[in-house]
Amino acid sequence: MSGYAKAGILVRNDIAGSGTTPEGVILFESPSGGIQLEWADNGGDFINAVMPPNGTIADQVPVWLKLVRNGATYTGYYSLDDSTWSSVGTATLTAQADTQDAGMFVTSHVSGTPGTAYFGRFSVS
Question: Between vectors from CA 26 to CA 25 and to CA 28, what angle results, nearest 5°?
Fold first, then answer.
């Protein structure tokens, strides 16, 4: 699997609208990038911003991820023990609907080479 693979949480207006509706925010863990938050900071259809830079928060598994929304602002958190939470970063998005789709994702970034991730205890509140 590619080092650019990633798995995590996705929030957007229309989860099936990739590239055709305003992009949302993703919080993920990646072998090459570590733990990061990505979003569209211009309200566009594609992600164009990332925080922090690759490798700032090292690749670590297992990891717990939490994404918190307050209006148009999303803050990503991670924990290595599901008890102590650290901030990944904060993103302010435009063009976001009051009601959002939320889910989990995994991508390998290598055609024909599937990625594998194990998810547990996913909830939305």
Answer: 160
Q: How far is 24 from 102, CA to CA, in rounded Å?
A: 10
Taking each continuous run of H as one helix and of E as one strand, the counts in the chain are 0, 8
Instruction: Please give the single-letter amino acid code of residue 49.
Output: A
- Give the distance from CA 22 to its chain's centroid: 15
Q: What is the CATH number of the domain that holds 20?
A: 2.60.120.200
pTM of the model: 0.90
Count of C-beta atoms within a 10 Å radius of residue 5: 22
Per-residue model confidence as pLDDT tens digits over 11-31: 999 988 888 888 899 999 998
Range of the domain at 46: 6-107
Where do we find the tokens 């055609």? 111
Residue 53 lies in a domain: yes
Between the CA of residue 103 and those of 1, 83, 106, 111, what are the distances in Å?
A: 22, 22, 11, 22
pLDDT of residue 104: 93
